[in-house]
User: What shape does this take?
Amino acid sequence: MVDELVLLLHALLMRHRALSIENSQLMEQLRLLVCERASLLRQVRPPSCPVPFPETFNGESSRLPEFIVQTASYMLVNENRFCNDAMKVAFLISLLSGEAEEWVVPYIEMDSPILGDYRAFLDEMKQCFGWDDDEDDDDDEEDDY
Assistant: This one.
């Protein structure tokens, strides 16, 4: 009985050693594949975007229309990256600085629902940073006639 246990233990140790060697070989192959992948990724260039990356917005009212046009254009040509309102709002927030960045902090701290509603977020920005919608409303009224 003891001899059988010794033989069984010896067989298990041999199997363990063989599996350890195989595991080491597989890990080395994995390391080589990861390095090769990294090398290939460096060679591949993403397609160029026809719309330049938007500039940051610091809260200067006169720049708000330009900022909204830049970000909307960029998101339009990269629509696969901005598939929902939360992604669009997060993108806008990532481009805020100065006074505009300070303005958005309370919304983030209270996890405001506006962070998931692109239109509402834009409306809030327009209200805070002085976008005059009266001209747009006048144009809409003329279109109604």
